[in-house]
């Protein structure tokens, strides 16, 4: 008799894993979208507005022309031999495509590459890192991956041996980390960002949570830092980064630096500095601190989520450990070649003097300036709504406003067997078609409630989004208003 497969006899680590970004509310949104397609006019809105994930092109953001033209020529190299190509593509686009194809064995983008990624592309990325930081980088330290998410999974697989191995993660945190730690059977050790101080990351909190974990017999192996932060949008100061590096050095922790939003900075007096740069400025060499930095082709002004390109730069690890990382990469064969090419372009875009530079810069600046305006408009809107408070987003693609819910709404959520912010988000979806993620999916201080809302809907849709959001909220508060309770 064949063994039946039930939820009860599945891997318990899979059952424990949660990923709120594509959870209940997103699934319900897809059902409503199908209903709208089958029965137009059957719902009180005419479209689903997905503000739940950072997926720029799905909202109409256009690809960066230089990146896509190079990719087109690489994937269809016979175009390089056609006379009309010179009139359709800029000279530096054609040159870059030829350089990339020369770096690919056989010039075949449809073939497997080395499991670590194509050496010539890793050389280009190392050059880009060195230019960004002012310190040298080595192509042998770079692993090209199917987006940063796969790199994170690889490292969790490497570090987590059992349920007593812990990873310090920010709360709120990008759910990839809690999901990956759960899948690999480890322990998430939370450290809380200080919302009242603009989501500050405080060393005293790190020390407190590390001490508490040790008291429970947890061997904390690494610290995750997301900078710029997802979902909260703050950008760390260099002084804060110095303190974080010193903390990791003192406590013997691996520093896992999620830097995929490094190009998404919206505030004039704020700048991004990589942790690689900070460690070198502090005088630490590779031998002093194990550091893994993650970057992606999915964010920034490029937003190429579907191409699944990214890398991790690994420094401070012995040769035997690096062999084990390479082995994990080999099990995955290799990341897709289009993603590898795009990642190299992200780290080496056109330079001043290149024919494509002016148009590239205009496209990039236009996208980032528009994102800044959208972020400010939504931030201002949330801060005018009863019971909402919203910190400024300095970077990334999201706002993470706090909502002080009436007790009557909290009781209604309890009766519906839902977290209060999930209850709110579900009602928002069913009334307006706006999809947000409840803060409970990211973690939050107990007794507080939040939503994460992306700033990605096109600028022309923001006024209607704000209007519908405010109208829904006023109706929701009118239905549930009582003495607002804030338990924190």
Automatic annotation (TrEMBL):
Pathway: Amino-acid degradation; L-alanine degradation via transaminase pathway; pyruvate from L-alanine: step 1/1; Photosynthesis; C4 acid pathway. The lineage of its organism: Eukaryota, Viridiplantae, Streptophyta, Embryophyta, Tracheophyta. Homodimer. InterPro entries: ALAT1/2-like, Aminotransferase_I/II_large, PyrdxlP-dep_Trfase, PyrdxlP-dep_Trfase_major, PyrdxlP-dep_Trfase_small. Belongs to the class-I pyridoxal-phosphate-dependent aminotransferase family. Alanine aminotransferase subfamily. One of its GO terms (molecular function) is L-alanine:2-oxoglutarate aminotransferase activity. This is Alanine aminotransferase 2. Its EC number is 2.6.1.2. Transfer of C3 units between the cytosol of mesophyll and bundle sheath cells to maintain a nitrogen-carbon balance in the C4-dicarboxylic pathway. Signal peptide: none annotated. It comes from the Eukaryota.
């Amino acid at each position: 008799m064949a063994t039946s497969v039930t939820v009860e006899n599945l891997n318990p680590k899979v059952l424990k894993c949660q990923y709120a970004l594509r959870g209940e509310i997103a699934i319900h949104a897809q059902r409503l979208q199908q209903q709208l397609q089958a029965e137009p006019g059957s719902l009180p809105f005419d479209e689903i507005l997905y503000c739940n994930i950072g997926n720029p092109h799905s909202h109409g953001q256009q690809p960066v022309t230089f990146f896509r033209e190079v990719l087109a020529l690489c994937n269809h190299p016979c175009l390089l031999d056609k006379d009309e190509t010179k009139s359709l593509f800029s000279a530096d686009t054609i040159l870059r495509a030829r350089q990339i194809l020369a770096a690919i064995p056989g010039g075949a983008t449809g073939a497997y590459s080395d499991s670590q990624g194509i050496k010539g592309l890793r050389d280009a990325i190392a050059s880009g890192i060195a230019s960004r930081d002012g310190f040298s980088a080595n192509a042998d330290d770079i692993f090209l991956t199917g987006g940063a998410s796969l790199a994170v999974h690889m490292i969790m697989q490497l570090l987590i041996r059992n349920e007593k191995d812990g990873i310090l993660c920010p709360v709120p945190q990008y759910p990839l980390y809690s999901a990956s730690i759960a899948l690999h059977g480890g322990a998430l050790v939370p450290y809380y960002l200080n919302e009242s101080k603009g989501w500050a990351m405080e060393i005293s909190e790190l020390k407190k949570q590390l001490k508490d974990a040790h008291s429970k017999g947890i061997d904390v192996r690494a610290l995750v830092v997301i900078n710029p932060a997802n979902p909260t949008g703050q950008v760390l100061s260099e002084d804060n980064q110095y303190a974080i590096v010193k903390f990791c050095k003192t406590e013997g922790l691996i520093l896992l630096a999620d830097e995929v939003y490094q190009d998404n900075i919206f505030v004039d007096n704020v700048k991004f500095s990589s942790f690689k740069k900070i460690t070198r400025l502090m005088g630490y060499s590779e031998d002093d601190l194990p550091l893994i930095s993650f970057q992606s082709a999915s964010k920034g002004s490029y937003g190429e989520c579907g191409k699944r390109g990214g890398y991790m730069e690994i420094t401070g690890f012995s040769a035997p450990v690096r062999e084990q990382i390479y082995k994990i990469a080999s099990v995955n064969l290799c990341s897709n070649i289009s993603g590898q090419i795009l990642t190299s372009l992200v780290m080496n875009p056109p330079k001043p003097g290149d024919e494509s530079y002016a148009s590239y810069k205009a496209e990039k600046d236009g996208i980032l300036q528009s994102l800044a305006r959208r972020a400010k408009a939504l931030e201002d809107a949330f801060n005018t709504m009863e019971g909402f408070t919203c910190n400024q987003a300095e970077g990334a693609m999201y706002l993470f406003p706090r909502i002080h819910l009436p007790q009557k709404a909290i009781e209604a959520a309890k009766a519906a067997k839902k977290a209060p912010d999930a209850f709110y988000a579900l009602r928002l979806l069913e009334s307006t078609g706006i999809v947000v993620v409840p803060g409970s999916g990211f973690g939050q201080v107990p007794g507080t409630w939040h939503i994460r809302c992306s700033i990605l809907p096109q600028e022309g849709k923001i006024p209607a989004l704000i209007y519908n959001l405010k109208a829904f909220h006023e109706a929701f508060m009118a239905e549930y208003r009582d003495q607002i309770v804030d338990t924190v």
